[in-house]
Amino acid sequence: MTKKEIIWRHILEQAITERLTKFTQKEIAAHFEISLSTVFNALKIPRKTHAIEVAGKFFRLRDFEKLLVIWATQRNFKKDIIYSTRVDLPVEKMEANQPHDIIFGAFSAYKFKYKDKPADYGAVYVYAKDIKEIKKRFPPTRGYHNLFVLNADDYLAKFGNATPDTQTFVDLWNIKEWYAKDFLHALKQKIL
User: Can you tell me the distance from the alpha carbon of 136 to that of 90, in angstroms, rounded to the nearest whole number?
Assistant: First the structure.
């Protein structure tokens, strides 16, 4: 993910978990150890679309849903896929056989967090820093790929073994399988 997306995720997650809607560019830059100009650039599109509002030294999240949709439409999901393969196992076994240090995304993230699945699904999406162990457990094979590994950013692990709701939403938005829409609809009901 880009730094811009990491900043957007931070703002959205703070709004959900801490009920924070007021931020400074300086505190975000310090939190991620990045330049103020990087934060300023990340806020250009949300500012233009009035998802955020700048007032003096602060900016405020005005429209949570708008920023979430901006992120979903800007996300280059396919670019983050670092490995994919076909696995001839049921989804539950694919999930159970993942290395301990992965982070579940998309359908699995929703299922594990909410102990529910709005539809049956046949693909597993995970985030990882290193794919050696995953490749060992799930070697490259031909056919329709149903296991996708995405590059985990440096801050993702702080959310636990599943992506946070905002990232799950954004990822589901970008997945082509028909059942992604059912998960997206159910997640939208929970977070909006």
Answer: 18
- Amino acid present at 77: F
Tokens matching residue 192: 């909006």
pLDDT at 91 over 90: yes
pTM value is 0.95
Dihedral Cα 95, 101, 102, 104, nearest 10 deg: 70
Fold of the CATH domain 3-74: Arc Repressor Mutant, subunit A (1.10.10)
- Residue 143 Cα to chain centre, angstroms: 26
Residue 18 CB partners (closer than 8 Å, separation 6+): none
Tens of pLDDT, residue by residue over 95-151, are 999 999 999 999 999 999 999 999 999 999 999 999 999 999 999 999 999 999 999
pLDDT above 90: residue 57:
no
Instruction: Name the residue ranges covered by the structural domains of the chain.
Output: 3-74, 78-191
